[in-house]
Write the structure tokens for this entry.
Amino acid sequence: MSGDVSVSSSTRNAYGLDWVLNLEFEMTYEVLREPPRLEDYMRLRRISGLSGFSEDGARKGLAATLFGVSILHEGQTVGMGRLIGDGGCFFRWLILL
């Protein structure tokens, strides 16, 4: 994340200050239309407070994802979403940020 700070002396706010502090941040995220990698999935579950799975169980679950997205910030997976279900009657959307 990069941040630029600019001060405007021509703007007066409600408190009568002669300047306003403006913070501008550039946030870059990349959305991939694929489930997260195994290690990222397990890490996101852990830091989100969800129960853990064995690597074998998580690998099988990820392989059965109907649709998935991975959200990356500066190359690191910071969020994910998975559509899971039986392929016919039942579906569930799981989102971790």
